[in-house]
From TrEMBL:
<comment type="similarity">
    <text>Belongs to the DyP-type peroxidase family.</text>
</comment>
<keyword id="KW-0560">Oxidoreductase</keyword>
<dbReference type="InterPro" id="IPR048328">
    <property type="entry name" value="Dyp_perox_C"/>
</dbReference>
<dbReference type="InterPro" id="IPR006314">
    <property type="entry name" value="Dyp_peroxidase"/>
</dbReference>
<keyword id="KW-0408">Iron</keyword>
<dbReference type="Pfam" id="PF04261">
    <property type="entry name" value="Dyp_perox_N"/>
</dbReference>
<protein>
    <submittedName>
        <fullName>Dyp-type peroxidase</fullName>
    </submittedName>
</protein>
<dbReference type="InterPro" id="IPR048327">
    <property type="entry name" value="Dyp_perox_N"/>
</dbReference>
<feature type="domain" description="Dyp-type peroxidase C-terminal">
    <location>
        <begin position="154"/>
        <end position="315"/>
    </location>
</feature>
<dbReference type="GO" id="GO:0004601">
    <property type="term" value="F:peroxidase activity"/>
</dbReference>
<keyword id="KW-0479">Metal-binding</keyword>
<dbReference type="InterPro" id="IPR011008">
    <property type="entry name" value="Dimeric_a/b-barrel"/>
</dbReference>
<keyword id="KW-0575">Peroxidase</keyword>
<dbReference type="Pfam" id="PF20628">
    <property type="entry name" value="Dyp_perox_C"/>
</dbReference>
<feature type="domain" description="Dyp-type peroxidase N-terminal">
    <location>
        <begin position="22"/>
        <end position="150"/>
    </location>
</feature>
Length: 323
């Protein structure tokens, strides 16, 4: 008979595997800050120490948020995992794998650290980024910094409600948080980002019925349309991954972003998953098509201009990097 784990060891395990704020509610504002770490030893050491102290910086800001929402999740890429943590990478962590379909490509771009920051107001986000980047100094280069905003009732700039099918309740950690299948990284989550730019005039030239068939939901009231069993599938159907184990969900916290003066309107896709392969499979179905070459028609109006994969480890893993 195997000995039972004591309450103390259970509590310690819970502490060691406490996830970052993956399950934070959809916020009014967000930022997606992607950094590349310089390769010299001093820069790596600075980056390690700033990443380790991010939890303290979050607390410094949260107390100033007057009980409003403020969360930040840190992701680390495959490229810097070894140098930064001194540990072997999580079992599924690989660099973003480009997906080249007959017409569209999910491009892979640079990025070593992801800061996914969510708050009720933009002032907190900017303050946090300012303090964070001061701490990093010239150890990093920011390759992207996108401010996302909530658009009416949670719509993307294609004007559809985005985020509906996200898992909730106990399904949320089951879909997003690594468990004992990778014990050293239990409590962590794979995170993939993609930046999309929309061709809004081409999209708006489509009939609402065409747009609804592309997404797989009605536009005004967000009701799910039946899945096509053959031929062209909707975005919703292509992103539904089912096998003998059932349906595999991910958590999305996409945000619209825009610079109207430059005609720039986009969606910043962010997906959290317990298994990287689930997000990769969705992208394969979107870009290559199911069946090929019937790609996701959302891509005829939305161009992927960035794509990076990270792993957001448990909180304690991050703070322990200081040791
Ligand atoms: C231009 C970028 C994108 C836009 C505007 C977009 C928009 C949407 C919208 C409006 C829905 C339907 C409502 C909902 O359930 O949220 C949806 C569903 C979904 N999308 Fe996307 N999406 C984008 C990219 C992606 C990517 C890159 C992935 C994954 C790799 C993805 C995964 C999903 C999933 C899993 C669902 C739910 C499917 C289900 O009903 O089970 N999306 N998306």
């Amino acid at each position: 008979m195997s000995p039972k784990a004591s309450p103390i060891s259970n509590a310690q395990r819970a502490l060691d595997t406490e996830p970052q704020s993956v399950d934070a509610p959809l916020s009014a504002a967000a930022a997606f800050l992607v950094l590349v770490v310089k390769d010299d030893d001093a820069s790596i050491a600075t980056a390690r120490s700033v990443v380790a102290s991010t939890g303290d910086l979050i607390k410094d800001l949260r107390i100033r948020a007057n009980s409003g929402l403020f969360t930040c999740n840190v992701g680390i890429s495959h490229r810097v995992w070894g140098p930064l943590t001194g540990k072997p990478a999580p079992s599924e962590l690989v660099p973003f794998r480009e997906v080249r379909g007959a017409t569209h490509t999910a491009v892979a771009t640079a990025g070593d650290l992801l800061y996914h920051i969510r708050a009720d107001t933009m002032d907190l986000i900017i303050e946090f980024e300012k303090l964070l980047l001061e701490a990093f100094g010239d150890a990093v280069t920011a390759v992207d910094d996108v401010a996302g905003f909530r658009y009416f009732d949670g719509r993307d700039l294609l004007e559809f409600v985005d985020g509906t099918a996200n898992p909730d309740g106990l399904d949320l950690p089951a879909a997003t948080i690594v468990g004992e299948e990778d014990p050293d990284y239990a409590g962590g989550s794979y995170v993939v980002i993609q930046k999309y730019l929309h061709d809004l005039s081409a999209w708006r030239a489509q009939k609402v019925e065409t747009q609804e068939a592309i997404i797989g939901r009605t536009k005004f009231d967000n009701v799910e349309l039946p899945d096509a069993t053959q031929g062209q599938k909707s975005h919703k159907t292509l992103c539904t991954i089912q096998d003998a184990d059932g349906e595999h969900d991910i958590l999305r916290d996409n945000m619209p972003f825009a610079v109207p003066g430059r005609g720039e309107y986009g969606t910043y896709f962010i997906g959290y998953s317990r298994h990287l392969w689930v997000i990769e499979k969705m992208m394969e179905r979107m870009f290559i098509g199911d069946p090929p070459p019937l790609h996701d028609r959302i891509l005829d109006f939305s161009k992927a201009v960035a794509g990076v994969t990270f792993f957001a480890p448990a909180r304690k893993f991050l703070s322990d990097l200081a040791d």
